[in-house]
Amino acid sequence: MTDPLAKVAIAHDYLTQRGGAERVVLAMLRAFPNASVYTSVYVPDETYPEFVEVDVRPTWLGRIPIFRHDHRLALPFLAQAFSSCVVDADVVICSSSGWAHGVSTRGQKLVYCYTPARWLYQSDKYLGGASYRGAGPVMALMRPLLIRWDRRHAQSAARYLTSSTSVRERIKRIYGIDAEIVPPPLTSQLGGPQTEVTGLEPGFLLCVSRLLAYKNVDAVIRAASHLSGRRLVVVGDGPDRTKLALMADARTTMIRQASDQELNWLYANCAGVIAAGYEDFGLTPIEAASFGKPSAVLRWGGYTDTVRAGRTGVFFEAPTPERIAAAMTELLNHRWDHTVLVSHAGAYSEGAFVDRLRVEVERLAENVQKRDRSRHATRTE
After folding, report:
1. pLDDT per position as a tens digit, 176-186
2. Which domains does the chain show, CATH number per domain?
3. 321 contacts 296 by C-beta, under 8 angstroms
4. How far apart are CA 346 and CA 218, in angstroms?
5. b/e for 72-110, b at 16 or more Cβ within 10 A?
6. 53: which DSSP letter?
7. Pairing with 337, which of 80, 142, 166, 244 sits 20 to 30 Å away (CA)?
8. DSSP-assigned letters across all residues of 210-241
9. CB 78 within 8 A of CB 98
10. Do 6 and 365 contact (CB within 8 A), yes or no?
């Protein structure tokens, strides 16, 4: 059995937003409540308030005001920041979509990989629009060096886990690593108390997304304009907010930030969820299904794992306004089985995620302890 005093830490790319990856880190902390969190930049007001109670340790980048204001500008410096981050732990859980797997440690690294870095391997989708402004050209120049850095540090991990079939295939293609699928958990905050969002009548279509170019929220807004009498509610913030607000018509409501209680109400009172981004997992349809609500999603990436056509949602083949509008219409005209939807969401429990993570960490911690005992025995001979 592993020593219960084995030291576990968590490394995460950055804590500057409220997204699915940050909710996964909170679930990791519920599995290992004494873990410290190492990250590049931490902005408490921009991420989930639960992190205030956590020992968060940002890198030197977090002392630079411009990077706290916009973490995307720090992209060219993140590799060096994580390479110089030394974590004293038996096991470091690296919550990574690009950089956190680069930390150094005396122990072993367990990488939970949301995707190999999009800005290196899907740069056409990820660095478009206003999202990365001046960082894009710099990243293009540094790309060959960063790819070598990324692949070298990927090989330093003892174990790779990931969220979906498509990401597992991407990890194999890019790194030559066989990752195992462990779906991220449905957040425990959902399903609790609800706070009504004033000014909205039930029956609206809902889009919950960070406002980045690859999320294709602009196409969702244009698609909704084709549906007479149906309101679209967009929940999220990001660099493209101003552009999207200008294109939205009077039947689109944009909410910069919703509390968990407000989000519960929005899910419970929507007609369905629309998701058009290039997502590596696609948690939003699972959240919707937990309220008995269907989704219309892009047939890409993780959505092909998390949505069942005709049972929990519908697919559209490309993120164009015309295709999305057709899928919205199909969703609204279909009769959905509430029981099937809720049952589907139940397979993504936080308890199952936590149990599996503890098993993986225990195995690695035991390896570290065996290694340390062997080294100690060698020194005393």
Report:
1. 999 999 999 88
2. 8-185+350-380 (3.40.50), 204-346 (3.40.50.2000)
3. no
4. 31
5. bbbbebbbebbeebebebbbbbbbbbbbbbbbebebbbb
6. G
7. 166
8. ---GGGTHHHHHHHHTTSTT--EEEE--STTH
9. yes
10. yes
